[in-house]
Design goal:
281 residues; Immunoglobulin-like; 6-stranded mixed sheet; 5-stranded antiparallel sheet; 0% helix
């Protein structure tokens, strides 16, 4: 029981609730106002939760207990709240308005999210499913610090796409929304392969040829940047290579400049390096 100047607040609300299908939770308090000069009909008890003041009503079964039926927003799993009491005191022929406030409390839902990842490894761009309960469209997955494209399948399942991260490593997976961040496991990213429409490139100076880059799965959120370097940079002209999000291929033109021979070195996060011989003659 916590006491203010003239008012005692006994919070009879559980600190934790199990999630229910209605998503409503009873917040209850038993305030005791001391003094014979209190105008009993003037007493008004409220709860301030999520920054909003809500009127509390006397319980029909417990005459000294005030209750508010709180509808928890679907994207939350906890809420902070406090109680307040406004009342009048009749003293020396005058009415004096009084206000008392309780400390801050926290209400938490337990077992709202019972999480596990259906696999523990996969390549960049692979869809991975997260199993739990109470999911909403506001929920997101972060892998190794990188936001993953996340899709709500239903209230019990989320699907996310492994983002572009270096292969052959394990990364932490976090479930995130506006109110919480929770680690749900780790996942290993396996190396994938970048395919090219040719095994080698041969072109003459001042001519162009088409290169088509292809990956096995749609590019993840933000797309896939492919780093293409060469040991004969003065002999070719080549634009940036980027596969857009959701796509699997991109076509670019490479131009020959001066005669030489060497190689293209093709790299991307989560992919094996590919070496392609190139000749300009």
């Amino acid at each position: 029981m916590l006491t203010g100047c003239g008012v005692s607040f006994k919070n009879v609300t559980p600190e934790q609730f199990s999630q229910n299908p209605s998503n409503r939770y009873a917040i209850a308090v038993k305030p005791t106002i001391r003094g014979n000069d209190v105008v009993r009909d003037s007493i008004r008890t409220t709860v301030v939760i999520d920054g909003n003041e809500q009127e509390m009503k006397l319980s029909p079964k417990k005459t000294s207990t005030y209750i508010y039926d709180y509808p928890m927003p679907s994207e939350q799993n906890e809420a902070k709240y406090y109680f307040s009491v406004n009342y009048d005191v009749a003293r020396s022929g005058r009415i004096i308005r009084n206000y008392e406030q309780s400390p801050l409390y926290t209400l938490k839902l337990v077992n709202r999210y019972v999480l596990n990842i259906d696999v523990d490894r996969g390549p960049v761009g692979a869809p991975i499913r997260l199993i739990g309960r109470g999911f909403t469209t506001d929920d997101r997955i972060v892998v190794g610090g990188e936001p993953a494209s996340t899709k709500l399948m239903n209230s019990n399942a989320l699907e996310f796409v492994l983002p572009s991260l270096a292969a052959n490593k394990r990364y932490p997976v976090y479930f995130v929304n506006a109110y919480s961040e929770q680690k749900v496991g780790d996942i290993h990213i396996d190396a994938s392969e970048i395919h090219l429409n040719v095994e080698s490139v041969e072109l003459a100076p001042k001519t162009k040829t088409l290169l088509i880059f292809k990956i096995d799965r749609p590019a993840p959120k933000g797309g896939l940047d492919i780093d293409v370097t060469t040991n004969i940079p003065a002999s070719i002209n080549m634009p940036r290579v980027h596969i857009p999000e959701g796509s699997q291929t991109v076509s670019i033109s490479i131009e020959g400049l001066t005669p030489n021979d060497g190689a293209l070195f093709i790299n991307a996060p989560g992919f094996q390096e590919k070496r392609v011989p190139i000749v300009v003659k």
